[in-house]
Queue: 2 jobs
Job 1
Amino acid sequence: MSRIAARFETLREQGRTALIPFVTAGDPAPEVTVPLMHAMVAAGADLIELGVPFSDPIADGPVIQRATERALALGVSLDDVLEMVRRFRLEDQATPVILMGYLNPIEVMGYTDFAHAAHAVGLDGALIVDVPPEEGHDLVAALKSQGLDLVYLLAPTSTAARISRIGAVATGFVYYVSVKGVTGSGQLDTAAVAEQVAIIKSLVSLPVGVGFGIGSPEAAAQVAKVADAVIVGSAIVRRIEAMAATPEHIPGAIATFLGSLRHAIDEVDAHVT
Ligand SMILES: O=P(O)(O)OC[C@@H](O)[C@@H](O)c1c[nH]c2ccccc12
């Protein structure tokens, strides 16, 4: 069983919803990321989504785009991100880590080399935004041969046929994008999310994570009622940006914010069976 599957299995047994923070690797400085990852775990993160900086992040809104630019300006590469995962793993063998990124840097490294390096550093999976399930067979084969999970996105516009097709290729969990548009945008419509998650759950046996537009304990609690995982990106990255001049404060402040999300989710879990 993969580390991601095992983590969701444990959470399911405990009746708990996962909290998945997203941060851009190397933002606002490369040396912040690993301590920040440990601080997020201590504050209740169940899995970490690490963004690989890329020059053309089509799915990202302004907040994460700026984080990407900060990291790219410091020269943070895919190799550097894998090195961060390796260093995180030296002290934490339990918390799954996935990379969020775009195909180009992986293509440049080479699919086989990436898959082997990812496995060697203790990465658990990847969400490659611009590789739809009907493409990238060589990449998928390379990653699966190294035991890495492949997370795919589902959108409000996904048809039942599309959901089933993604359910057949995805491993680990599926990621339901709660709003149309880019990261950090949109108004969360919790009733619509509940409806769509129920449809996904009837078609896909994997856990369902929900992300996009969740930025407060209240929103996290609403989503925790229906999803297996609550994914939060821009609200964290915005706080990191505000502290870019005092990076030593970042792990503690983000831990405090995540603690408030964790608490709100735990309250819901205690009441929902
Ligand atoms: O930023 P938001 O609205 O909290 O959404 C999560 C999101 O940031 C994170 O999962 C993510 C960052 N970049 C992405 C690109 C595609 C899908 C998901 C992502």
Note: The chain has one domain: 3-268.
Job 2
Amino acid sequence: MRYISTRGSAPTLTFEEAMLTGLARDGGLYVPDTVPTLTASQIADMAGKSYEDVAFTVMRPFIGDTFTDEEFKRLIAQAYSGFGHAARAPLVQLDSNHYLLELFHGPTLAFKDFAMQLIGQMFQAALSRSGERITIVGATSGDTGSAAIEAFRGLEAVDVFIMYPHGRVSEVQRRQMTTPSESNVHALAVDGDFDDCQAAVKDMFNDFAFREEVKLAGVNSINWGRVLAQVVYYFTAAVSLGAPHREISFTVPTGNFGDIFAGYIAKQMGLPIADLVVATNRNDILHRTLQTGAYTKEGVEPTISPSMDIQVSSNFERALFDAYGRDGAAVGGQMDDLKQGGFQISQGAYQYLQDQFKSGRASEEETSAAITRYFRQHGELLCPHTAVGVHVAEAHLGHTPMVTLATAHPAKFPDAVKAASGVAAPLPPRMADLYDRSERLTRVANDLSAIQSLIKERIAH
Ligand SMILES: Cc1ncc(COP(=O)(O)O)c(C=O)c1O
Ligand SMILES: N[C@@H](CCOP(=O)(O)O)C(=O)O
């Protein structure tokens, strides 16, 4: 298995190289040259298996000889051992044909832990072989950052710098990033929005001298390993609802398009997925794009689902690559146009995307109303991102079972949840003193070279 860039002119890499490299040198994202498929009987065999066993079956074909089978099984076991639910990703029935897939039982209470805990294990194994020291720089709208810090805190061979938009993450998210005391953790509060933070990460990767000097690595969904680990729970959920013998649909609260792209890969691998529904908040660029074929940037608006306050949706490039028949030059052209504000997708590519994805959006009022409704009618306290998901899913319910991804724990967003439900979701006991811990962060301007200088200074010490 080789990994190729969505812009078509970077070297092809092995899984290990793609994982440690981050952004491709032509500015594109790495994807597998072919997506391996699983047979119906391999999928049927997953019934009754542990999450870890399914994870091994799903991911093994992608990793080549990066790890032996035994080693990979051990890394998977370690990755999920700290999860607070034996099923790892349990399903909860909401209605006769609507289910929630709870993805918030990991250490930082969001779906990001599924990939980040495994990436942490895989990075450590690869780095201990090579003896290398790396600098991880990540952008976050709240959850990726806390999951990355949790996965890499205290590691000798890694410094981790996380840029988050100042004042635009919840207090719990911020404290998860600013309270770890390990000296290899650096939380940077950027005067900007998530798109500014993500653009800075990509600019750092495109600055080859800086990239070499600090040994830059990425753990955003730029990194194929992140997407891959998220493919697994589509299989566990679908199989427990009857796949491969019946089709299942998924609604996915979407921002950077990584999670839903993982669902798209599951479908490519042979999982019988009927609909993949993109659910956006009022930062609805993906919904508008799927409705009109025009990807047009507007300003990022703060919402009560802050982790999805994104307009430049990184992984959409991976979907475009397939939509354009894997023509890297066409994708590169569209990404150049995006710098000027947007692009029009060609008719054929647009048709492909419409065949693959459905979409909907939830306003702020609709999001709050969904939290209220699901609490009163079903006794389920939803985080605002999940509430966006269930609101959109309701418009797509039919005969096929619908699974909405519950992407974060309601306790991460206490203000919005309490305002809508009247109830405060408690943090788990291990985090009960989060508000008492002292914070450590650096406020920075949205200035690439100043941030690069700060990173160089910090790692020199
Ligand atoms: C809680 C939560 N829900 C949904 C999303 C959207 O996921 P994605 O960016 O993979 O589309 C994010 C952030 O990405 C998130 O943190
Ligand atoms: N919502 C995310 C945004 C970054 O997404 P990623 O999947 O590319 O890491 C966050 O919480 O940071």
Note: The mean pLDDT is 97.
